[in-house]
Design goal:
Elements (H helix, E strand, L loop, with lengths): L2 H15 L6 H17 L4 H15 L2 H4 L4 H17 L14 E6 L6 H14 L4 E5 L7 H12 L3 E2 L5 H15 L3 E5 L8 H14 L3 E7 L5 H13 L3 E5 L8 H10 L3 E5 L7 E3 L2 H8 L5 H11 L2 H13 L4 H13 L3 H7 L5 H4 L5 H12 L3 H5 L6 H11 L3 H19 L5 H16 L16 H13 L11
Parallel strand pairs: 1-4, 1-5, 2-3, 2-4, 5-6, 6-7
Antiparallel strand pairs: 7-8
Length: about 475
């Protein structure tokens, strides 16, 4: 979503880092480009004015003059102020001491309100909560049925009845108490535009259920219009936070960067994809880091911890170093990586990834081709790819819908990867040999077998560089070249 803005910041900071000392003219030029980049990203003008003003105040003061590297200090200042504009800290949701905790969902039609009601319910359920979703959107045809369909997917019940929205919302509280539900999420009706009828209905529902949290669902694709919508709802409902949807789209990011400063309420959650589990707590510092091209290692680690079993990952890493890593292991690792989300998104979270690599479009379908090739092999072939001859290649290619040369390329490159990884470890045979020698040496007393002084070792820097060169030359079938 923020690719264009990230590229602009890369260019701005690249110029600053190349200078040992910054003049006031250099700072003014950088701030002018930052202002233009934010305006082009559809950030609210007042927000841009405030953000750039804060950066200027710190950049031309004592803080910058005391820095050993003024260019890096500018980047630090921009990161901190951008984080502040996005909300500063992640919003912490607490639950009522006397259940149920009521959450009211509001927003315009088409913003993804019903879907995100289910996503929020799924998140709370994963935290051990017993959730009840309430279908109080009786204006849109099939809205309640959509909520029930989503409820069946995540195994969360939905309460609704053929009356009026206010009565449904009020009755849901009694239903929650009777069924032992400690969280109630009320999905309300939306309109194509803000009107008096919509605001009055959602206000009456709010009075009936007295929500602990009122969240406004905002479509990030609407840009600055999202801020106007948020202001209108806030004047009626006193919002507690915003849920930003479609952060995985190609919007310029103005809504995310504007809503907190204009409305004064934080972005609580963000929808990062279409799947029910692509929904997460919004962390301002992490998003600011990603916008500035610094990656988001915290989210990457969290996704990896959720997708990978620790023991399995350690065993796979050990087999990789020992040279016993098979294509079956490779298939399992790819499946776990896919659980972490789209590969393109994962690349954006990795710090230090060059722009050229970030811009390469790697679709999950391209990874699926590799899976198809491996799944078309027998278990014996996966364990010992060297046995795959021309006849076997033809059979595997036919079974996977690929070409024989694609199969050959995968096997060749996999063998090269194994050879490269052996440089960092040792084969099982060598490990056993070393163990036997160690046992024999215990029986002998004294007697130096090597010359005095440290044993000669290969330069680890040279070894690492050679391995990186080899890794960069790997080209697996179905994946685009970076050249």
């Amino acid at each position: 979503m923020f690719d264009t803005l990230t590229d602009r910041f890369d260019g701005i900071f690249g110029k600053l880092r190349g200078k040992g000392k910054l003049s006031e003219k250099d700072v003014d030029e950088a701030l002018r480009e930052i202002r233009l980049a934010l305006l082009e990203a559809d950030v609210n003008f007042e927000v841009v004015k405030s953000l750039v003003g804060r950066i200027r105040e710190r950049a031309v003061g004592d803080e910058l003059s005391k820095a050993l590297n003024p260019g890096q200090q500018i980047v630090k200042i921009v990161l901190e102020e951008l984080t502040e504009s996005l909300g500063g800290e992640a919003m912490q949701v607490t639950f009522a001491a006397k259940p149920p905790t009521v959450v009211l969902m509001a927003g315009l039609q088409g913003s993804g309100k019903t879907t995100n009601t289910a996503k929020l319910a799924n998140l709370f359920k994963s935290q051990g909560r017993n959730v009840l979703m309430v279908g109080a959107d009786l204006a849109r045809p099939a809205a309640v049925e959509q909520l029930r369909t989503l409820g069946r997917q995540i195994d969360v019940p939905v309460f609704s009845e053929a009356s009026d929205p206010v009565s449904v919302a009020r009755a849901s509280l009694e239903e929650a108490k009777n069924t032992g539900r400690d969280v109630v999420i009320v999905d309300t009706a939306g309109r194509l535009a803000i009107d008096v009828e919509l605001m009055e209905e959602v206000r009456q529902i709010s009075e009936a259920v007295d929500p602990m949290y009122t969240f406004l669902v905002v479509d990030a694709m609407t840009g600055q219009d999202a801020v106007t919508v948020a202001e209108s709802f806030h004047s009626t409902l006193a919002l507690d936070g915003v849920i930003l949807t479609k952060l995985d789209g190609d919007a310029r990011g103005g809504a995310a960067l504007s809503v907190k400063e204009v409305v004064g309420r934080p972005i609580a959650f963000a929808s990062t994809g279409e799947k029910i589990d692509e929904f997460e707590t919004f962390y301002p510092d992490r998003l600011a880091s990603r916008i500035l091209g610094m990656g988001d290692i915290e989210t990457l680690i969290e996704k990896a911890e959720a997708a990978f079993e620790e023991e399995e990952a350690e065993e796979a890493a050990q087999r990789l170093i020992e040279g016993t890593f098979t294509l079956d292991d490779f298939l399992q690792q790819m499946q776990q990586i896919k659980k972490m989300g789209p590969i393109g998104n994962l690349l954006g979270m990795m710090p230090g990834i060059p722009k050229e690599v970030r811009d390469v479009e790697i679709e999950d379908k391209q990874v699926d081709r590799l899976e198809a090739i491996i799944r078309s092999m027998t278990l014996e072939e996966r364990a010992n790819p060297q046995m795959i001859d021309a006849s076997r290649r033809g059979r595997i290619a036919k079974g996977s819908g690929m070409k024989p040369q694609d199969v050959s390329s995968l096997v060749t490159q996999f063998n090269e990867m194994q050879k490269m990884m052996k440089k960092f470890g040792m084969s099982p045979q060598k490990a056993k040999s070393k163990s036997r020698k160690g046992k024999k040496s215990k029986k002998r007393r004294g007697g130096r077998t090597t010359s005095k002084g440290p044993a000669p070792m290969a330069d680890p820097t040279v070894l690492m560089n050679e391995s990186i060169d080899e890794l960069s030359s790997l080209r697996l079938p179905g994946l685009p070249d970076n050249d």
